[in-house]
């Protein structure tokens, strides 16, 4: 038997979530965001599974775009942070990658480049996130410079990104949207605003292009229930198995630093998963796992390769029983909340160690 830790990736669930994203905004085009190795799910298999459902993919850097091209993905690929050097502009032209233009330096680099074919560009406007993008009052002049350059071809898309769309009570999304519409008032151009939270929770942000990421992988962008987000299906099920069982007496402690103490005669199951596999070190005692579909509390500190679970109330547990860390039946959002983080971090930080096993492809 090989080490049982693995991440099952359900490609049918991925496609279902993508179809849900498409159906929420049927007149829009979906750019599937597959950066960071498709949020840990494997960019190449994910892109292959979505290639007929979306017109384009979004990535953070040219290496991610090249990986997809080399794997035979022919869809347009968009670099969400633009080109970091003149070499990258040349590669983008050759490989038909579209480029975000996030500041005046990138604009000038695109205008002064000597691309083998004209560039496709999206202008990114900073409407309040204050991370990347041109100031709203720079949009019209920047658009005109790019649109009249021989270096640029096709529709220029105008984009912005929301800071608080995951908080449905927060009116900052509406404020950002107003800033964007005012800035783009004079321009008849395609627009792109919505990430997953915008697409699901803020219908006014749906535009010519939507850019969902996390929802494709079945994780709700919200921390409270939402009827559409709750229809998403988990794509990754992170599983392992029980590799040891022992009984300990009240007063005995478990794990590094002896942080957890038994208060009753306790049966401890050791599970082959740890922070070296991507399970969060900071998951506290009490974080649930599923053993044979039943919730049990993880106890003690997470080790590099193992965790320990109190299975006293589940006397039927035996060695080799399957354990779900998150996924089907136990949402990654719940585990992230226990560990004081977000699903994005848990998913994107999954190392290669736990093999991805693709199912329903
Ligand atoms: C510019 C941009 N658009 C879209 C997305 C996708 O966001 P989400 O995963 O929240 O849908 C991201 C992700 O961080 C992003 O940076």
From TrEMBL:
Its cofactor is pyridoxal 5'-phosphate. Keywords: Isomerase, Pyridoxal phosphate. GO terms for cellular component: cytosol. Pfam families: Ala_racemase_C, Ala_racemase_N. Residues 235-359 form the Alanine racemase C-terminal domain. GO terms for molecular function: alanine racemase activity; pyridoxal phosphate binding. GO terms for biological process: D-alanine biosynthetic process. PANTHER family: ALANINE RACEMASE (PTHR30511), ALANINE RACEMASE, CATABOLIC-RELATED (PTHR30511:SF0). This is Alanine racemase C-terminal domain-containing protein. It comes from marine sediment metagenome.
